[in-house]
Amino acid sequence: MKLLVCISKAPDTTSKISFTDGDTKFDENGVQYIVNPYDEWYALVRALELTEANGGTVTTITVGTAADDPTIRKALAIGATDAVRVDAEAKDPYFVAKQIAEYAKANSFDIVLTGKETINYNGAQIGSMVAEMLDQPFVSLAQKLEVAGNIATLERDVPGGAEVVEVNTPFVLSAAKGMAEQRIPNMRGIMAARTKALNVIPAVETAELTSIVSYSMPAAKSECKYIDADSMTELVELLHNEAKVI
Questions:
Q1: What separation in angstroms does the CA of 210 have from each of 13, 91, 99, 134, 183?
Q2: What is the rounded distance in angstroms from the CA atom of residue 90 to the CA atom of residue 208?
Q3: Three-class secondary structure of residue 190 per DSSP
Q4: Is residue 232 domain-resident?
Q5: Which tens digits make up the pLDDT trace of 25-72?
């Protein structure tokens, strides 16, 4: 079994977010990056579980610069066989998907796995684009994945219940919460990651179809008002006159 897992970096949720150049660029100064949790905890770990049970390899692919290498090395420490970095800045989802698809075409993977979205942009676009470019089936928001031979069984939530689908390999999926449990790299994995292959390849020339016009911070949260437990009349009045339904 030959699996490809798409890996991207995201700011740690404790990082202070700010913008520069008239709010057109994300300020990376002082920002601590992590592997995007949906890519790491669900897509990567489930891929590792499948190859541990059935044999095979797990390759990660990242579109990014040398600044992404530490997060790639973490994926290797968790257990990935090797890694590929397409040497280009990831600005546009179509551009990123094209790089992944071209590499996947040239190397014939059984399954391409992505996280359902990144926690910094929440675009959820890469998986479907890659599947279209590869002309392969795409299963989104998968929460369970089992493989027997060349047939995969996947489960995902739908309104009112769960949907179970079967698909032949090769295919593309996006992984949601429930697919696997987070793994913490151990010392052996961290040491092994230093010698695993991280292959840097040039980007395929591709047009960028979107660009960022500006960033803005969400509106500040209003202050909380605390009401004495015995002041029911005051509470009712505030609910009628000040509370907002969102």
A1: 26, 8, 16, 21, 35
A2: 10
A3: helix
A4: no
A5: 888 888 888 999 999 999 999 999 999 999 999 999 999 999 999 999
Residue 10 lies in a domain: yes
- Direct distance between the N- and C-terminal alpha carbons of the chain, in angstroms, rounded to an integer: 47
Residue 4 identity (one-letter amino acid):
L
SS (H, E, C) 16-84: CCCEECCCCEECCCCCCEEECHHHHHHHHHHHHHHHHHHCCEEEEEEEECHHHHHHHHHHHHHCCCEEE
When divided into structural domains, the chain yields a total of 1
Report pLDDT digits (tens) over 91-149. Answer: 899 999 999 999 999 999 999 999 999 988 888 999 999 999 999 999 999 999 999 99
Residue 246 has pLDDT above 60, yes or no: no
Amino acid identity of 188?
Answer: R
Q: Which residue is it, tokens 């219940």?
A: 161
Which residues form the domain of 59? 2-218
Q: How far is CA 75 from the centre of its chain?
A: 12
Inside any domain, residue 53: yes
pLDDT digits (tens, 9 = 90+) for 164-218: 999 999 999 999 999 998 888 888 899 989 889 999 999 999 988 998 899 888 8
pTM across the whole model: 0.86
Please report, for the domain that includes residue 194, its CATH number: 3.40.50.620
